[in-house]
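Why does this matter for the project? Reviewers at the last site visit asked to see concrete outputs rather than summary tables. In response, this paragraph embeds two records directly. Each consists of the residue sequence and, immediately after it, the corresponding structure tokens. Nothing has been edited or filtered.
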Amino acid sequence: MEQEKQLGTQLRIRREELGLTIDHVVQETKISSRYIQAIEAGDFGLIPGEVYLKGFIKTYSKLLNLNPSEMVSQIPSQDSSSQNANDSVEQSLYPRDKSSNQGFNVNSSMPKRSDKHSINGRSDRGPSIRKSVQIIAIVIICLLLITYVYQNIILKNLPLPEPDDQNDDPIDPGDDDTPEPEVPQVTIVEDSSGFASVNVDAEQIDLRIEANQTCWLRAQIDDNEPESQTMAPGDVLELTAVSKIQLRAGNSGGIDIYLFEELLPVSGQSGGVKNYTIQTQP
């Protein structure tokens, strides 16, 4: 029971560190909140069977970015009394003579299969292997010979290209009339511990999110349905919207937000939840 409570406490602490609620875990894993609470409380007896218990803990561990195999290995093993009972029944049905130390040998009653690939006790695979090695050696020698002829005979006898005198004028870098792209104007309307509002003077919004710590993120682009995911360190998420992007980040201090390839100077708090609204100017 103590080992079950330790495993449940470890999962609960990890969930709280990511700023996730039980309702969010239920939404992402489709596991009943009653079972989630039972797992975190170490009350594994409420789970309907060991197969379901292992499946729930493996799914829950993946959401929390924990090693599923390591978490499942911490589940206490069930009572082995049923296995011992089965062993007793098997011994009564199939007794063995301990004095002679002889048991039932399946292989002793099976006829031996003759080796179809041997003649007079010797395998005939040797010649075929040697033939394959000889073919490979011939192919390698041919390739080396072709490479030598190409590099030392053909390439050395090729005529040198004549210089092109038609375009001797150097390119003047000042003749490039391509206009430089204008940098959209970004205005930070508000930046508090739990909310940030940013206006952009542009026709669309190009956003890139880079994670340097584990962070849970929910993003809504324009009027589309919001989508959630857990970002691991090194993950990159790119978003494009016409008018608005709304973000909700757990452990908001673990991400960097880039707007039009420029780092957005909005604060984030490690372990804290923060909402972001980035929209084009009305």
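We now turn to the second protein, recorded in exactly the same manner.
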Amino acid sequence: MRIVTARLRRYAIPLRDVFATSRGSLSRREGVIVELVDSEGRTGLGDVAPLPGFSPEGLADAETAASRLCAGLRELEFDDHRTCLGEVLDRLPALRGCPASTRCGLDTALADLAAQAARRPLARLLGDDAAGAVAYNTVLPAGATRRDLEAACQPGIGIVKMKVGALAPEDDRRRIEALLDGLPPQVRLRLDANGAWNPQQALTALAGLPARRIEFVEEPLAPQHADALDDVHRRCGLAFALDETVFDPKRWHALLRHEAIVAVVLKPTLVGGPSPAVALALAAQRQGKKTVVTTALESGIGVAACLHLAAAVARDPGGGPPVPCGLDTLRLLADTLLVDDPPTRRGVMSVPAEPGLGVRLNRGSPCLETGTRLGGGRDG
């Protein structure tokens, strides 16, 4: 396999509602779609979408790095069935120091090509025993209303996720209690603090909440308070999960040993793509931790990559039921950039059965700019 053409297409998609986290709010999602065309005429797709407030790189830097990498990829020959960005690291010096979101987009596009060459869905390339569908949780917007809650608790949904940490801990506590009162008893809550709290703030927000109703709390403590994870866990009675901590592999492996940690949340955009995410998932599962795959509000191309990854790695190593993943974000976008979105029914998203990602880019989307063809010139 040889890459003969590469295109980069910027996009800007309005969000249907402002999406708030403890690190700011988003009203639109921007990124770059990567299209790699190989010598057999196949097209691999990827999404370069640094997440504001979480990715250290901005979109301009990520796009510049993508252009540089695409130029290098054209000079390489690949084994059709083993293509992934991790395998060309030593052959592509420009990759060293490359932003994670750029690596994710290129890794996804190369893996898409490899899966097409192997005539297998990408999920089956990432894991031989990949599932054909993945349960997902829903996400409540900032300032969720009763109507939002009813929409989130659609048939089949077992987990509803809510962002916390942007308000005072006492206010978050009142929001959590109100939400628990409104949730059907069979639906559990997943909280995400994005490392916003110190130990006392976490206890103010969480102590005494019913553990049977709360699956876990993602990143409850700021990094400098990580040593207090187990103490806070014992005092509040809730389980915790790692998320942003994955940025630092050395620190992440140490934190896996905490008894408070029951799960690891993986976002391909933030860890460098599906290939490194698989390695991280396997490492977490060897420590007995659940693995959850979550989008970073990417376009439909990025969400499709997350879906395939989740089908390959999202599981409970203890043999429990499938772990719902954070895939229900396409409904937050005014345009997914896809011709057809992956089908969902009763809280489950089906994995496309076609080779590769199995989705088609809607090149006529008004949110998608005319692309830049590698080597100069504009491409429609």
